[in-house]
C-alpha cells in the first residue's frame, strides 16, 4: 500500500501567539556544515540533485572490538587511587557500533558509566551527535549529551537540543530541541519543541509544546505533535487543506489511521463556512489476491444546496448530500479475475459543488460493475452486470443509461499452421433502464415537453452470435487476409406502456465479408550520411455488407463512427451491436516508413488513402434501409461515391522534436472535413512544448441528441509547456483557444519549486463548461480554480496532490516528487 506521511495535533491548531513564555523552547545555535558530516557537491554532483551537498559518515577510527568489550585510544591515561581512569588528549572509545570522541573521558572503577568533557562527538550507525558534555553507559544504550547537535545521515535530518538522551537503541529524547531536513546553514523551516522524541525503530517522532517556524517566524503551535522521520506509514493527522473564496472558508483536516500493514483509512472532517460540516473518508485494504477501496462523504445539512443549483433543479437549502464509491478487484486463480465497483451520488451537482481533486469538476458519471472473467488459451468467458449514474442536474430522462443485467460473453479462436483461423463470438445481454413518461414517451424537462425516441423506449434482451472464418498469409513482402463473419442478432423487447405497433421479437442475420491485402517494398537509403531503410506499403481492402431494414431495432449501446484512417480498413460503420451498416466499398492507400538502419526505430511514417463506394449507404441510426437521411450533409455523406482523402504523417524529426498530422480532404467539394496537427518538443533536461491545431466541419462527428450536435465549424488552437528553469524550478502553462467563437476554452499557469527541504506548487486554472449543450454557447459557464501545495520534506505538506493533473495538462511532462530531496 502507498506511503502516507502524517502528523498529529491532538489539541487542535492555534496560533503561536497563544503560547506562554514558559513553553517557549530555545534550542542552541546550529553548528557550521563542516562539523555535521556535510559534503558539498563537486564535479560529481548527480543530475537533477536539488541539494547542494550530502551527509556522509566517515569510517570508524577504531576497529570493531569483541562483543561486550570496549576499545580505546588516547594520548594520555591516568589512574586514581579509587580506581578511576582519566583519559585525555585525543580520546576515542568504541563499543559495538557506538564511538565516542572527546578531549577528556573519565571511567569510574565500576566501569559502568563514562563521562566526557567536550567538545565531543558521539557516533552510531548513520548518526552523529556533537555536544559540550556527555555521560553514557558501557552496559546499555543509555547516553546523555548537553548542548547537543545531531545529524541522521540517511533521513537527511538534523537539529539542536539543550540535552539529548539516548534511552534505547534507535530512540532519542531531546529537550528544548529543533528538527529540520534543511541543509546546514538553512533555517527555512524547523520544528521546535520542549520535548522531542525520535524513534528510528518505528519511524516517527513526537514533540510537546511544538511550534513550526518558517524563516524563524513561528506560524503554528501544537500542544502535542507526531510526525514521520522516514517513509513508513504512521497513524495521525495529515496536513490540512485550507481554501478561501468570496463566500467563506473551506477547511479540511484529514486523519490517517494505519490500521495494519495491509489496511488503512483516512477520515476527513471538512468545515465549509457557508455550507456546513462535511465528513469524508476512505478505507483501503490489500489481501493476498484481492484489493479494494471504499470512499465517500456526507453532509447532513447543506445550507446552500438550492442557492447553487439551477432553476430546474430539485435541490433545496438544507438537503443532505453525499457520494459513495466502492472498488474491489481480485483473482480466483491465474486465469480468473473479477471486479466490483459501485458508485453513487445524492445528486448530479455533488462534485460541481464539493469537488474531488484539483480541477476535477467534470465528473460525469459514477460507475457500477460486477464482473468475472476467465482467460484460457482458447476461450475467453465473461459475465458482468454493468451500469452507471449520470451526474447531471437536472437529469434528462433520455440521458439515463441502459444497465446490462447481465451480459454474458464467450469468445474463442483456433488457428492452423497453414494460416486458417476460426473465431467464436457470442453475447447475451439484458438491457434495462427506468424512464418516467406517459404512454407515448412524453416527459417534461426544463419547461419543455420531450419524447423518448421509439428506438430507445424498450427494455429487453439481445442475443448476438458472430462467428468468423478467415485465412491470413504473412510474408516479408506482404499479406493477404480474406475474412467472412456472420452477424446474427435476436431481440426480445418490452415497450411497457408505450403505444407502438413495433414487433417485440426481432431477428437479423447478415454476412460481413472483407478482403485485406498489402505489399511491402523496401530499399536502403542514405540521407545526409545516415543509413535508413525505406518501405513502400500499398494496401487494398474490400468490404461488403448487405443492407437490412433495422428501423424497428432498438438502440441500446450503438453510435455512428466518425470517418478516420482506421475506418478505411474496417467493414463496420457503427460501434455497439444494434446497427450493422451496409457497405460496398474498396479502400486503397499507401504508407511509407523510414526506419533507422542501426536501431530499426521508425523516424517517419506517411500514409495516404481513400475509399470508393459502389452503392449508397442506407442504414443510419434510424435503421431504415429504404430511406436515405433527409439532412443535407447526412445525405451527401451517404450518397457520395468516394470518401475524403485521409492523410497521416508521424515524423520524429530528431530525438527531441516530433510532429503528427491527420487531414481529411473532400476532393469533390474541395473542402477540409477534419484536420489535426500536433508538434511536441521534449528536451533531455525535461523541458516540454506542445502546439496543436484542430479543425472540424460542422456535423463531422455524428451525435444522437440535438443538444450534442455542433452547429458551427470547430477551429481550436492549443499550446502547453513545462520549462525546467533550473533543478529546483519548473514553470508550467497552457491555453486552448476557440477561434470560431473568439474565446479561451482553458487557461493554465503553474510554478513548482523543489528545494532540498521543501517544495511548492502553485497553479491557476480557468476553463469553460459547456453544460452538456454543444450546439450553443450562450449557456456556457466559466469556472476558475487556484491551487497551492507546500511540502516540508520529512514533515508533510499543506495542500492536495496536483502532480497527476500537471502531467495530464502538459503531455510529455514528468513531474517531480516533492516529498523527496
TrEMBL record:
**Domain of life of the native organism:** Bacteria
* GO cellular component terms, A-Z: cell outer membrane; transporter complex
Q: Where is the Organic solvent tolerance-like N-terminal domain?
A: 77-203
Signal peptide (from-to): 1-25
Q: Which UniProt keywords are present, listed alphabetically? A: Cell outer membrane, Membrane, Signal
The residues covered by the LptD C-terminal domain are 320-724
Among HAMAP family, the record links this protein to: LPS_assembly_LptD
- Under what name is this protein listed? LPS-assembly protein LptD
According to its UniProt entry, this protein's organism is Halomonas eurihalina
**Gene designation:** lptD
